[in-house]
Each structure stands twice: as structure tokens, then as C-alpha cells.
């Protein structure tokens, strides 16, 4: 999956969290949650390290699991508590952002699936229905296939983008 959908999820979660907060806060939270939604794909470094795709630490492996999402959520919740924010709220937002990544990748029509249940199982999981085309990795995104995948994702995630970017209604003070 191209990153468009993952970023849309982070942006929508950020808008949900911030509502009508000042625009700088909204942008910062949307960016933070979008980065968290993209975090599992940091496993592409496995290619450079010559870790096989199908290995537990390969692409779409352990970093795409619910356990990984939970660990990141606990870390963010701890940081939120330290900063005086709601640990449970930030933990749940993080769990949704990071956890959505593996689920969305399981909805693609290619690759090996996502190791959603690692470390309990190394099995790669696909959803029963796979409506999203798999994105080419690396420079392949600059091809006709990459453009096609990007356009499909843009259309599929258009509601999330619209929600995230819809102008905030300013309340008038009497």
C-alpha cells in the first residue's frame, strides 16, 4: 500500500483529537499521528540489511503486528503522562494509528500479507477481501503502476482526507 492511506488515517485521527483547536496544534497532532501511522514501514530498512521479506523482521513482519502497536502505544502514553496529557487518550490514539497500518496492508492484493499476530504466530495474514492494490516498493512508485495505486488510494481514503482537512468553523463570540 502506498502511504496515502496511512497518512489519511493519521490526519483523521489528528482532526478527531484536536477538533477546533488552533491550527498549529491541529497540524502538529495530525503530523505526529501520521508519522505514527507510517512507523511500521520503517521495516523497509530490512531490505538494505538483507533480511528476507518473509522473515519475522522482514517487511510487513513484526512491526506490522498488534503487539508492536501496543508497545508503541504504551511508550506514547508514558510520554503523554510525563507531559501532563491524558495517557489513556494518547495511548488509544497511538494504538489506532499504528495498529491500522497492518490492517490496511492486509487489505492489499499483493505481497506476503502482514504478521498481525507476531510474536504468537509468524503467519502473514490477508483480509478475506482485498480491495487495495499493492504498491511497488521504492522507485517503482514512479511508474504507471505507482500512479494507479496512488489514485486508487486517494479515492478510497477521500472521506478521511475530507474530514481531516475540512475547514474549522470559527465560533463567533457575542
Automatic annotation (TrEMBL):
One Pfam family, short name: YdjM
Membrane spanning stretches: 27-49, 61-80, 147-166
Protein's UniProt keywords contain Membrane: yes
Protein name stated in the entry: Metal-dependent hydrolase
Domain of life (superkingdom): Bacteria
The keyword Acetylation appears for this protein: no
UniProt GO molecular function: hydrolase activity
Keywords recorded for this protein, A-Z: Hydrolase, Membrane, Transmembrane, Transmembrane helix
PANTHER family the UniProt entry points to: INNER MEMBRANE PROTEIN YBCI-RELATED
Amino acid at each position: 500500500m502506498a502511504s496515502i492511506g496511512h497518512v489519511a488515517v493519521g490526519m483523521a485521527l489528528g482532526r478527531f483529537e484536536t477538533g477546533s483547536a488552533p491550527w498549529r496544534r491541529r497540524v502538529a497532532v495530525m503530523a505526529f499521528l501520521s508519522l505514527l501511522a507510517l512507523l511500521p514501514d520503517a521495516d523497509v530498512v530490512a531490505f538494505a540489511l538483507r533480511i528476507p521479506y518473509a522473515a519475522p523482521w522482514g517487511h510487513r513482519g513484526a512491526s506490522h503486528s498488534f503487539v508492536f502497536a501496543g508497545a508503541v502505544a504504551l511508550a506514547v502514553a508514558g510520554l503523554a503522562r510525563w507531559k501532563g496529557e491524558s495517557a489513556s487518550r494518547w495511548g488509544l490514539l497511538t494504538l489506532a494509528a499504528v495498529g491500522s497500518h497492518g490492517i490496511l496492508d492486509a487489505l492489499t492484493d499483493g505481497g506476503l500479507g502482514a504478521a498481525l499476530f507476531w510474536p504468537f504466530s509468524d503467519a502473514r495474514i490477508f483480509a478475506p477481501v482485498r480491495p487495495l492494490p499493492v504498491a511497488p516498493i521504492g522507485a517503482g512508485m514512479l511508474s504507471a503502476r505507482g500512479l494507479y495505486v496512488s489514485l486508487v488510494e486517494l479515492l478510497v481514503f477521500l472521506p478521511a482526507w475530507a474530514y481531516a482537512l475540512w475547514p474549522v468553523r470559527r465560533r463567533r463570540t457575542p
